[in-house]
Amino acid sequence: MNAGAPSLEELIRSSSRALVLGVGGGGDVVGALAAARFLEFCGLEFVLGGLSWERYVYDPVPGPRSLSEVENVRVLHEYAWMANAESRTRTGVYFAEAKMSAAQGKEVLLIDLNGGVSGVVSGLEAAMKEFNTDLLLGLDVGGDSLAQGHEPGLRSPLADSIMLAAFAELEKRGRRTLWGVFGYGSDGELSVDEIEVALGKVAAAGGLLGAWSLTGKTAAELEEVIKTVSTEASAIPVQCFRGALGERKIRSGQRTVKLTPLTALTFFVSASVLYDALSRPAQAVRACASLEAANDALHAMGIKTELDLERERYRKSE
Q1: Is the pLDDT of residue 313 over 90?
Q2: C-alpha span between 231 and 238 (Å, rounded)
Q3: Structure pTM?
Q4: What is the rounded CA–CA span in Å between residue 287 and residue 278?
């Protein structure tokens, strides 16, 4: 193992309270709950979180919402706020995290990406101080955070790249971090083969720390949560745990996902090893202090982002 990557056991045993974030926004907070239950099983308390960025089918306004665009949140920092069951945009869109708050009966963190990597780092440090957490776990549903940037199916690299770069910076500052990939391939972006090759590269660099499957108890809880927290990608692993096989169309028929029992796994990797060994997109946005700067950095690599797609759809709808 890479000397800089502690074992999963060491990370968990040396921690007592975790902040667990869905790093892709929207329904990723459901996958974050699955990872949080694993940590709870290991004896840790947790606080859930996600991003102030809903998929365009729920919030047609492009990009993540800023503090001036939201209602009913408790502000910890300009880029970090606590959502409750009534937290929504000023246009009336309830965040997935607000629905999760209602389901769990407790506040859920919202991180705003508009301040770029530096804004996320500052916001997460404020949240970790507020809740006295000593472990930060980022949970990616689907596996597009494993992208190197050339993959033809890549559609949403911006949020993942900013969050991974922020995690790498926080680890550099001495924070204990962990990265998880839940339901690999379930968002229909990277193929299963691409994800497995990427995981192999991370493993070769000493960054693959372990894996954990959904259990019957956690799957049942997620099934209940999904009734109120809308998600396609986070629902796929649960369905695979119940025996779904083959292929399925998602995103209004625009993408195809492979259904296998292995989709019920969460792979845990070192955020810093993933950043250093594989993630050219995260490396490209590391110094960015705004969402626009990060978007431009990915454009310079020839990468189109979810923000670009949302803006295109918004212009067409006007």
Answers
A1: yes
A2: 11
A3: 0.97
A4: 17
